[in-house]
Structure formats: structure tokens, C-alpha cells
Amino acid sequence: MKIKYPQLVETAFDILSKSLPLNMAKANSIKADIYRELVDEGVLDENGQPTQLAFDKGLIDSGQHQTLAEYKQEFPQLKGFSANHFKYTTSGWGVDNYVMRSLAYKSLAESDNEYDRQRALNTLHQIEEVEKESKQ
Fold it and tell me: What is the pTM of this model?
């Protein structure tokens, strides 16, 4: 079984594999050790998300929004949602279906613009489809 490790673990493994001869049959074991070490060092949290320390040390190049607080500052409509609804990926910050659904319903309730309302309905439909697929 191939385990998906956080980008920071994959990057560390790539650097290590280029500098030392590694037994690639033990790649998952080596990556697990790297993961544990990064958690112990405090640059990854227990869920594999980069911590503020990782950003402070320059280990993460996230571009525009390094922290969730910065992301929420840029998008004030997200301020009311708790941190467990957000996930940092290699593409930047993402939100879960709860946030998407909440924003779509808010747009439906508050907007008189037909384009905005249609986009909200399309978003709700896409969420429904994703949730159906994930239950199968």
C-alpha cells in the first residue's frame, strides 16, 4: 500500500535519497521516520499540516498565504469558520464542504444577482455529487 505523506516529508525524502544510497524497498519506513522526526521537531502537527515553525524556518514556500490567519484576513467571509474546516495543501489553503455549502446558502439568501445565485446552486450541486461519490 502506498501511503501519501505531506509534501515536506516527500521533499526531505527526495533530498535524502539524492545524498545517500537508500534501500527503496524501505521507502515507506524511511518516510514514516522522517514524518515522526518532523512532528517531534514541531514543523508538522500530528495531522501532517505545517506549523508556524515550518513557515518561520522557510521550509514551506506557500506564496501568498503562509498562515490560516493570513488567508482568513484576505477572505473575511471565512473568519467565522473554525480551523478544523481548513486544510493546507501543496496548492495552498482549502476549505471543506461545510464551508462551501454555508457560503453557497448565504449567497442564495442574500444575493439578488441571478449570476451569483446560479453559481451558488452549481456549487451546492457539485458538493452533492462529491458527497455521493465519496459514499460509494
Answer: 0.52
Q: Which residues pair with 93 in a beta bridge?
A: 88
Cα four-point dihedral sign 16, 17, 23, 28: positive
Tell me how long the chain is. Answer: 136
- Residue 45's contacts (CB-CB under 8 Å, 6 or more residues apart) are 39, 51
pLDDT tens, 101-125?
999 999 999 989 898 899 999 999 9
The rounded distance, in Å, linking the Cα atoms of 72 and 65 is 9
Q: How many CA atoms lie within 13 A of 113 on its CB side?
A: 7
Average pLDDT over residues 19-33: 81
- What is the three-state SS of the chain? CCCCCCHHHHHHHHHHHHHCCCCHHHHHHHHHHHHHHHHHHCCECCCCCECHHHHHCCCCCCCCCCCHHHHHHHCHHHCCCCHHHEEEECCEEEECHHHHHHHHHHHHHHCCCHHHHHHHHHHHHHHHHHHHHHHC
Task: Give every CB contact of residue 10 below 8 A, 6+ residues apart in sequence.
Answer: 31
